[in-house]
Amino acid sequence: MHALEVNFDGLVGPTHNYAGLSYGNVASLNNAASFSNPQEAVLQGLEKMKAMHDKGLTQGVFAPHARPDLNVLRRLGFTGNDSQVIHKAFKADPILLRACYSASAMWTANAATVSPSPDTLDGKVHFTSANLNNKFHRSLEPATTTRLLKAMFNNDSYFAHHTHLPDQGFFGDEGAANHTRLCDSHGEQGLEMFVFGASAFNSQLPKPAKFPARQTLEASEAICRLHNLKESSQILLQQNPDVIDQGVFHNDVIAVGNANVLLCHQQAFLNQQDALQEIRDAYTGSKQLYIIEVPTDKVSISDAVSSYLFNSQLVSLDDGSMLLVAPQECQRNSAVNAYIEEMILADNPVNQVQFFDLRQSMQNGGGPACLRLRVALNEQELAAVNPEVILTDTKYTQLCDWAKRNYRDKLGASDFADSALLTESYQALDELTQLLNLGSVYDFQLEG
Predict the structure, then answer these.
(1) Beta-carbon neighbour count of residue 248 at 10 Å?
(2) Hey, which residues are catalytic here?
(3) pTM of the model
(4) Does residue 41 sit in helix, strand or coil?
(5) How many separate domains does the chain show?
(6) Is residue 88 part of a domain?
(7) Which of 268, 326, 332, 431 is paired with 231 by a 20 to 30 Å CA distance?
């Protein structure tokens, strides 16, 4: 059956801000305490979605989370009505409050791991929300993410949803940011690559020394079991610990795959040549597998991290070629831009590049690939998806209008003491759930 891969891009939330909350993410740390522009951020993301739609690709929309998270503030001892809780938290611990305002759910590559039906023993599409327990502000996301996924993929005949893994470090799971699928076509059985940073239980495996390894081997193994993956559809590889310590906090900062192409840096994996041979041996497709290995002497790790070359999207076009969807930072970096030009002229399916201004997201440490969750669907499965979360020309216009009416164009540290920001944010999301036909998915809706 014909199938395609749908990118569900995260809408940037109304409280998008720079708080430097993500230790190990260089861009996040470097831009801490800068003023943010939530309206510009959401419109930049929507522009990328519309561009993909205009190329004939099926493009989905993933709603943001409700922020600030008042429930967790109350669990931490702040009492009173909503306004009092915010003011008490701002006075006692402004960094904590900013974490509870974080719009990090915009990076839906971390929302979940998705296994398409050709790879699973029961023939269903499986979803497991990531627990994201390595960072406090992201650990607040899994329950809402699961509700959103169930509202989008709401037919039990085709979709299976799993509870996120236990909320502690042994099973640290960062979702699709450490998961890539290689295949001849999206409707055929593929090879799902699970990339982990360290093992929680096996002390013999190396681990980074400076920054944390956010994905554990044990978490990846658990996802394979939960998703009923065929043995021939799974491979587990370790990320190079040395590059984690240089700011490569997820595998999608050092490698990206699509269909029969894997684009990776020369230093992406532990024991790289053995890892690449393991991938070749495990790949069961009939088409040629292209592994494009970027040499360090052409693109350094530093350039890869600052430009987010590997956090670009690779998408398949109707003519069989592939498009690299890259941030403008790649174009501005002379070494990276030169390599992209060389790659496009080489003998591989990637023959186009399109650059996007995603500065608001990039400054917080997320590029094009961070902003999207990939879901391969056949025709019947796509027909079973909530149609209101699929982008159309009309939906794009509605969402841009919604954002311009509801989002501020500047947020700084003092704004988080303003309880009006909460009111504005919740009202915007209440309207959005109607626009996307999601029902009640946020705590403030369920408790109201």
Answers:
(1) 29
(2) 174, 250, 370
(3) 0.95
(4) helix
(5) 1
(6) no
(7) 268
Residue 26 annotated in ligand binding:
yes
Give which of 108, 43, 34, 58 is closest to 356, Cα–Cα: 43
pLDDT (tens digit, 0 to 9) for every residue of the chain, 448 residues total? Answer: 799 999 999 999 999 988 655 444 444 445 456 788 999 999 999 999 999 999 999 999 999 999 999 999 999 999 999 999 999 999 999 999 999 999 999 999 999 999 999 999 999 999 999 999 999 999 999 999 999 999 999 999 999 999 999 999 999 999 999 999 999 999 999 999 999 999 999 999 999 999 999 999 999 999 999 999 999 999 999 999 999 999 999 999 999 999 999 999 999 999 999 999 999 999 999 999 999 999 999 999 999 999 999 999 999 998 889 999 999 999 999 999 999 999 999 999 999 999 998 877 777 667 888 899 999 999 999 999 999 999 999 999 999 999 999 999 999 888 999 999 999 999 999 999 999 999 999 999 998 6
Cα 167 to its chain centre, rounded Å, is 19
Instruction: Tell whether 20 is in a known binding site.
Output: yes
CATH code: domain of residue 248: 3.75.10.20
Residue 222 covered by a domain: yes
Amino acid in the structure at residue 383: A
Helices (H), 20-168: 26-30, 38-54, 70-75, 82-92, 94-100, 136-139, 142-152
The answer to whether 19 is a known ligand-binding residue is yes
| Residue 156 CA neighbour count, 13 Å, CB half | 1
